[in-house]
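User: GSDA3 protein. Structure?
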Amino acid sequence: SAELTEDQLLLLLESLDKKIVPQQLKLVREHVSKGKKSLGAETGLLSFSQEEEGEITTAIFEMSGVTLRKDGSAVWTGEAFSAVAALYVSLYILHLLS
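Assistant: Predicted structure:
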């Protein structure tokens, strides 16, 4: 079973503080549903208004084994799916509680 790292949990707290959890949840949901297809830049990292928000999101994804590209596409490692599933559940619960 996949678990989030301590660094990911700290970034999730920062995401909660910056109120970007709904955007991150949407991004995870869209990447999982689209698989390896490109989402388009307007759906990806460019949807974050502040550069720091995009950097936090990029870091959380990379720690889960997914590299987000500015064009909206993502590169998944072999072990990424279970890590992204754990990230999705965490974001979903934070979103419900906030």
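The two ends are 26 Å apart (CA to CA). The helical segments are 6-18, 21-34, 51-63, 80-97.
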